[in-house]
Amino acid sequence: MRLILVEDNVRLAGFIAKGLRSAGFTVDTLETGGDAQVALGCESYDAMVLDLGLPDMDGLSLVKALRARGNGIPILVLTARDGLGDRVLGLDVGADDYMIKPFAIEEIAARVRALMRRPREAQSNRLRCGNVVLDMGNREVEIDGRRISLSRREVDLLEQLLRRAGHVVPRPTLESQVYGHDDEKTPNSFEVAVSRLRKSLKQSNADVQITTFRNIGYMLSKTDH
Known about the structure:
Layout: E1 2-6, H1 10-22, E2 26-30, H2 33-42, E3 47-51, H3 59-68, E4 75-79, H4 84-92, E5 97-100, H5 105-117, E6 126-129, E7 132-135, E8 140-143, E9 146-148, H6 152-163, E10 169-170, H7 171-178, H8 189-203, E11 208-213, E12 217-222
Parallel strand pairs: 1-2, 1-3, 3-4, 4-5
Antiparallel strand pairs: 6-7, 7-8, 8-9, 10-12, 11-12
Helix pairs in contact: 6-7, 6-8
């Protein structure tokens, strides 16, 4: 799952991002509301973790602007404002959850996972192709009802292919969902991730295949046998 973290305190942002990555998330960090709006217009994210005290705008103004444009991204607000009125206002303008500083990274991760389990746009909580099923709530993959172990990147890659099963997904689209801007990667790291996912699916007797379309992208489809 790919998150956008909007926090202008660089040290705190680094601490939160490191903890969320350890919890299995891909995280992009930004310092201003303006940068966040630009990123959300160009990239696809599963949730936002938002500090209210931004240098260019109040975080609630960003929430209002996103909701006014019909952007339904789940938003977890982080703030030092501990008044009841502040919390009520934050929820009323469109935030989905609210946490008061100081906080524990484990709780942030748990709350984000909870937000992701909520129904969004009538989206099913399970993605399926052939005998492969991905439970979006707990990020677990089953093949013929048996749970298999995949790395976070393998699960993120599989999710994007399952969402567009039977269609070619452009490589840049896949890479943007699997790797955050701050993630370290080698020139062939994406091909390695695809190769590992292929191997994992084959070893688990999945009846799907990942087809490479050179210089275009990849497609997941059910095999004929």
